[in-house]
What does this fold into?
Amino acid sequence: MTDDVAAARAAEEESAFSHPPVDPDVTVAYGDDPDQLIDFHVPRGPGGPAPVVVVLHGGAWRAPYDRRHVSPFAAFLAGRGFAVASVEYRRGAGEPGGAPVAGRWPDTFDDVAAAMDALPGLIRERVPGADPRRVVLTGHSAGGQLALWAAARHVLPVGSAWRTDRPAPLRGVVALAPIADFEVADKLDVCGGAVRQLLGGDDWFASRRACADPASLLPTGIATTLVQGRADDVVPQAVAEAYAEAAAKAGEVVGVTLLEDVGHFPLIDPGADACAVVAEEIAQLAW
It folds into this structure.
């Protein structure tokens, strides 16, 4: 990476994290753990019942990165007329004083499944003006993986505790630079070995992939779009392309929107043009 490219990527990250956190209109617990929370942002502006965007934040499934860093993105979507549900979930903390690991097996997946199951009722109870029949699921990076996974629970292996007997009632999924293919992400060492950590380490990588890897859970029958920056060096374009290829082999067409000269973080940066593209992709499925 040249100095100019490195500087551009650093500037993108600085811009994305420069926005102050935005407090939600209401926060609701979907379980007893302190991380089992959903922030709701009500839609801004006039209009009838608003579509709901469910946001799953990224951060390599690691504890230091929580939903607060995507609260400006959630508020941006609310300003576009969506009701927004930003989901928190348990992440990997690691040993005291050590580097955080990625994810907690099975807690991370338990939480996303529980949140998705609770959301229709919570939306009806707590977000007047939202339409729980029009839901789009989005997620960034590791959250993109969780979004794709949550939309594929009906094709999980028989016997999985997370499996559902029918597809989720979604208008679609918009996955932003998702860690969507574990084999390719692992080969590229995405986020410092995060995929292997998420699954519990080397001993579990092969056996748990079938229950967690979006590229192994196809076809879903749910409209899916991936938005990916061509200049992303955190989750490279090759990961999204591998998922799209796996979908095609399974007989499913997945949309891939590639953005020139865009890295990893502008997709969730309200100050970036890429974020407006994301909102439009969501709108195309929601309205």
Notes: The beta strands are 26-29, 37-41, 50-56, 83-87, 130-140, 172-176, 224-229, 255-259. The chain has nine helices and eight strands. The first helix runs from residue 3 to 16. Residues 43 and 78 are 5 Å apart (CA to CA).
